[in-house]
Every structure is written in C-alpha cells, then in structure tokens.
UniProtKB/TrEMBL annotation:
Protein name per UniProt: EI24 domain-containing protein
Protein keywords: Membrane, Transmembrane, Transmembrane helix
Its membrane topology: Multi-pass membrane protein
Main location: membrane
Annotated organism of origin: Bordetella bronchialis
Compartments where found: Membrane
Residue stretches spanning the membrane: 36-58, 95-122, 143-164, 170-188, 209-228
A UniProt-annotated Pfam family: EI24
Amino acid sequence: MPAPSHSALPPPPASAGLAGVWQAFKRAAVSQCHPAMLFAVLLPFLIALVGAILLLWFCWAPLTEWLRDEASHWSVVNNVDEWLVAVGLFSLKVYLVPVVAAAILLPVSGILGLAIAAVFVMPLVLRHVGEREYAAVGKQGRYGTAVSVWNALWVSIVFALGWLLTLPLWLVPPMAVLLSVFWWAFAFSRMMRIDAIVEHASPEERRILLRRHNLGFWSVGLICSLINLLPPAWVFLPVFSALVFAHYGLDALQRLRQEKVIEMAPR
C-alpha cells in the first residue's frame, strides 16, 4: 500500500489559544483536589509564612524607622499630614509608614514561596500530572534543576527590584492595583513557564514553546495575579499555579510533538 502523500496529511494541530488556558485551569482544579497536591500546598505556604514572620521580626523596626526618617523629608507627605492634623482627622505618617513597610516585606515572603514552589514543588506536580495525563510525553530536558534554580533566582531579583522601584507610584491611583497585578503576572509567568516544561522539553522545543505560547503563558500569569489579590488564595496559589502551568505547558509540548510527527511522515 503506497505511503500517503504529504498533501494528504492532516494539517498540524492549531495552538490551543485562550481555550487552552481555560482548559489548563479546569484540569488544574481537578488535580488540586488530589490528596498529594493538597499536601503539597503546605510546603510553599509554610515557607512563605515563616519567611514573613522572620522578616517582620528582624526587619520591621529598622525598616519603619528608616521610612519615618525618609517621610520627614517628603514635602508632599508633610503638607498633607499637617493639613489632616489641623482639621482634626489623623496623622498620615502614622498609617503610611506601616502600610509601606508591609507592602515591602510581604511580597518578599510571597515571591520566596513562589520560588520554592517552582524549584521544589513543580517536580512533584509534573510527576503527578505527567504519569496520569501526559504519559506519552517523554522527558527530553537537560540540566532541569540548574535551569530551574537560575530562572527562579533572576525572576525573584527582578521582581523585588521592580516592586521597590515602582513603589512610589502606588501613591497615584489606581497604580497600586495595576502595578501589583503586573509584577505578580511577571513573577508567575516568567518563573512557572520554564519549570513547567524544563524536564520534558528539549532546549529547542523550549524555545519554540516560549515563542509560540508567550501570550498564553502571560494570560495564565495574569489570571493567577488577579486571583492573588484575594488574601485567602495565598495559601494554595503557589501549587495551583504550578498545576495550571504544568497542564498548559505539557499540553502545548504534546501538540508540538504531534506536529513533528506529521512533518516527518513519508511523502
């Protein structure tokens, strides 16, 4: 029987697009209910909690003292504070300094929890979903641990510096919400997308996936950052986001390899 011609072959599978993002969230919600994934929630949450306690214990007093000293040189803050006190309302500095200190310290503990989830929890996530739903997707990645650690390190540094440098813009409504959403979307997408595919995708496949599905990965990161605005989500979001990115990344890799099979079919 003659081999099928290349023109008779079906076209390569289309990118999943936004439908793939929605599908990844649905699959992640199901995976999150598994006992193993429920237990995995504890690790990044406990580390972030301990990190927050240590930061508050050791850094709160010197940080608030430094902020009060700096605030005393800000003419705008001084003028507003004097006016509020004069009309008998409250002192702006009394509330501003603790809020700014919390806005600095809490995200540091949050990015620490996300980095822990990316480096240590993501392998558990990949093993869980890989064996159940993506068994046919073989592992072709190289230097996965080194790539994951380096990626988590530089993303955490950029996130921390970007958060601190743009903190003064929070005084301009509604930049506080917009900047928070942007930086967490950056952290989720840049950190988790690499870890989701580093074990299974070869370096060439990884480059193709990141270029082709850049919008999809950013969409997942944006949705996770919006969920992150709700404080109760901080407990489960590091692991849940890892599940979403794992489903989205492995599904995209599976589609890519299906395309390769079609392209390599005999004429």
